[in-house]
Amino acid sequence: MSLRVVADRADQAAGLRALAAQRRARPPAPRAARVVAVTSGKGGTGKSNVAANLAYLLARSGVRTALADLDLGLANLDVLLGLHPSRTLGHLLDGRATLQDVLVEGPGGVRFLPGASGVARIADLDPAGRDRLLALLEPIEREADVLVLDTGAGVGQGVLSFLEAADEILLVTTPEPTATLDAFALLKILASRQERSG
Fold first, then answer.
1. Distance between CA atoms of 57 and 113, rounded to whole angstroms?
2. pTM of whole model > 0.90?
3. Is residue 149 within 8 Å of 38, Cβ to Cβ?
4. Please, what is the Cα angle at 78 between 127 and 89, to 5 degrees?
5. pLDDT tens digits for range 7-52
6. DSSP letters of 87-152?
7. Are 72 and 182 in contact (CB under 8 A)?
């Protein structure tokens, strides 16, 4: 082996070390989970069951999945999942717990963010509170491939803001006439808001 070849290899190794150092110094690109919101125009259609089963099946398929109960004030996904969390979304929003304190592992390895039930201040979040809540979800979006949001039913501003933050919306209804009409009303409102935002 000639001295020239050894020098070239030494230069190449130095270049690789410099490239590795640059990559370590650069923060990793944030991951963006696909956000799927599950909603309904009317309560009692099975929306939360669809959200829970979708998250479970995705996780069982090897997809890194998170599930957030955003049925503000009337959360019940923890019951469907057979979990008894000691902290909820209420603790997170009040600053009494961190996101990591609140997240629990659900069936199939789903990372689950339990909502708060019967808490008026959570049910009546103002726009700033809803924006803050969405910002608190960002670390979950960076760590998951899919984030499933179980929203409340109806056409309230809280529900609509979560739907507009999603990449995809699953609208759950039943053949019962009022459920179908309420689903149609929700679709009309979403289409109208999308037209206005252009």
1. 17
2. no
3. yes
4. 30
5. 343 454 555 455 555 545 545 445 589 999 999 999 999 999 999 9
6. --HHHHHTTSS-HHHH-EE-GGG-EEE---BS-HHHHT--HHHHHHHHHHTHHHHHH-SEEEEEEE
7. no
